[in-house]
Amino acid sequence: MMRARVSGRVWSTRHVGTLPTGALLEVETEAGARLIAFDPLGCAEGEAVLITQGSVAASYFPETSVPIDALIVGSIDEQSTKRQ
User: What is the CATH number of the domain that holds 30?
Assistant: First the structure.
């Protein structure tokens, strides 16, 4: 798994029919790499997330074969350093 931050949405009018309900998001990893990840959770821009890749990402949907190589599997809760 790797940590990343959502940097934007990718809109796709046409896509493979086996793609489940969710969104395609552009994320940037801590190493600075950018990739497109499938988001079944409903994450927002700027949110810190956990990503898994490869066969683990695709096997998350066992009932169908999906063309997914990167999957958002968690939203990271961040603590504020500001005192109120």
Answer: 2.40.50.220
Render pLDDT for 53-72 as a digit per residue (tens, 0 to 9). 988 888 888 888 888 899 99
Q: Is residue 80 part of a domain?
A: no
Distance between CA atoms of residues 76 and 27, nearest Å: 14
Range of the domain at 62: 2-9+23-69
Counting the structural domains of the chain, the total is 1
pTM for this predicted structure: 0.84
- How far is residue 32's CA from residue 65's CA, in Å, rounded to a whole number? 30
Residues sharing a CB contact under 8 Å with residue 50, sequence separation 6 or more, in sequence order = 1, 2, 3, 4, 72, 73, 74, 75, 76
